[in-house]
Amino acid sequence: MRxxxxxxxxxxxxxxxxEHRELHGLVSILVNGKKGYSQHPETxxxxxxxxxxxxRHRALVCEMQLRGYEDKSPVRTASNRGAWPSVYIDEPHVQxxxxxxxxxxxxxxxxxxxxxxxxxxxxxxxxVLARDPNRYKKIGRxxxxxxxxxxxxxxxxxxxxxxxxxxxxxxxxxxxxxxYVSEVPNAAHKGSVESWSLKKLLIMTQQNVKTSQQPYLGHxxxxxxxxxxx
Length: 230
Fold this sequence. Notes:
By secondary structure, the protein is mainly alpha-helical. The chain has eleven helices and no strands.
């Protein structure tokens, strides 16, 4: 049993759908008191964190939908709203290494594994911008000046993505993202973004990224995870 902490975009098809199944199994154990895997470390660290499990499920589903899969099994647990487990089975940077080894000779996920802090930061920029422009600037400076290690950055970014963004932050990040793909030939509707809902703005951005094969946004965590909050 494994519930990863890093963004689901790094998971390949098998791992993504596998975590989705295992998360439902874990919820069943916690909600219905089933014995199987009830003492597993992964189960124990999620005890009392129903809201967080629901959000992790939502993140998996949004990534699945981006890749063309459907989900018809919602998670409705809601205990301890706003709180996440304070422990990891493996630290986030170790999770990258485990997946790299697991995927040798196999397909990778939507987002390539980062080789350094700069690549990791590039993949998470818009997710951070949606939460806090000041934190966005600080992390950017720290990465540019090599003032933060890859391992520490992994932990900080996992923490950021667990934080709900405000509406203004979402719009700011989504408008920046739309700017990369708004003029794609044969792209989706090119209307006034000011009249669109945030959900429509993200959907249009996703469609245009797929049309253009834009690698920068195509490898962004924000492309799926911002939908969690819409």
